[in-house]
Amino acid sequence: MNLKLASVQSRLDGLGLSFLSAGLESFLAQPRTDEMTTLDLVSELVDLEVLPRKERSARSRIKLSGMPSIKRMEDFDLNWLKGGITQRKFDELASLQFIERHENVVLLGSSGLGKTHLMLALAHRACTQGYTAYYTTCTDLMESLIRAKEQNRLKRRLTWLRKPHVLLIDEVGYEPLTAEQANLFFQVVNARYETGSLIITTNKTFSAWAETMKDEAIASATLDRLLHHAHALVLKGDSYRMKDRIRNGVVDSE
Question: For residue 185, which of 202, 199, 169, 166 has the smallest C-alpha distance?
Fold first, then answer.
């Protein structure tokens, strides 16, 4: 083995540049064109370390997000929907600018329209682009907050829920909230107001939130903060889960 190469690799390992060290020998063996400048070569060399680190970091963010499954934007069949989100709006959300602007995304519609798929796909893209995300169902969120309150750790828990760039709350309204839960849900929305993005899925129209939260004042205050800077999308169409079965003729579309 080339002793000079081994020496360089040893020093790279000592600096914590393990990916660069591992790929250095094959990098040096690759043919180069005369058009490549020294800066081009340095850029490729740096990528040996940077790109794997980004991929590893993205995998860590995805794992820590608590998302139940991996969904991708390119796998979402926008044409299946019969309204609620245009291609332009879909592309706008995919750009993740809403996270930079601390805006919320509210996906409203009946069961099976792909609300959770779209939520998870946006979060997956966010994780691959350097943002942090955390997923929870509304039911699990309420349980964790009540437990934290009972243990005098509610303030700490709310502070933690402010940390992710985007917080995902699935299935809001699928079960009615008690007065205590409604107040806690408001505190989560209020804690993230204009400081971080929320993505929420719900099957309840906004006019029904007062009934779901059993308190018109709390519902109004929650919606005021949730929708102030938000993309509220009412998805329409047939069940997204049934689309492949319908297209294959297993289920009648009528």
Answer: 169
In the chain, % of residues over pLDDT 90: 65
Sign of CA dihedral 22, 26, 28, 32: negative
Per-residue pLDDT tens over the stretch 169-178: 999 999 999 9
Q: Which residues contact 28 (CB under 8 A, 6 or more apart)?
A: 5
**Nearest by Cα to 78 from 119, 113, 127:** 113
Q: Residue 140 corresponds to which tokens in the numbers above?
A: 């699990």
DSSP 104: E
Looking at the chain, which runs of residues are DSSP E strands?
Answer: 104-108, 133-137, 166-172, 197-202, 230-234
Return residue ranges of the chain for CATH 3.40.50.300: 73-244
The alpha carbon of 201 is separated from its chain's Cα centroid by a whole number of angstroms, namely 13
The top-level CATH class assigned to 73-244 is: alpha beta
Q: How far is the CA of 54 from the CAs of 57, 81, 125, 146, in angstroms?
A: 5, 34, 13, 36
Between the alpha carbon of residue 167 and those of residues 92, 94, 156, 238, 253, the distances in Å are 19, 16, 16, 27, 35
What are the structure tokens assigned to 145, written together?
């907050």
- The helix, strand and coil proportions of the chain, stated in percent and rounded to the nearest 5, come to 60, 10, 30
Q: How do residues 213-223 score in pLDDT, each as one tens digit?
A: 999 999 999 99
Query: Which H or E element spans position 150?
Result: helix 138-150
